[in-house]
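name: query_chain
kind: protein
chains: 1
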Amino acid sequence: MRKSRFSEEQIVGIIQEYAAGAKASELCRRFGMSDATFYKWKAKYGGLQVNEVKRLKDLEAENGKLKKLLAETMLDNDALKGLLAKNF
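structure:
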């Protein structure tokens, strides 16, 4: 996955500028991003503070690790069921 040019803190700062009254088109031109990117960020990070964004990032990383562990466990379980079926 491509890494963004902007950190989460910068994104929250841009969204907060918009909430303070700046126009979206002006922010996009000033920071060199598309309108679609801005509105995608607004949907994801709108109303969040910097510490909440860090917590969200940590939770997403933990969720990814747990999903990977679950998938590996399910594969092991399926393999064991296959072996038991062959033996009996």
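note: The chain has two domains: 1-48, 49-88.
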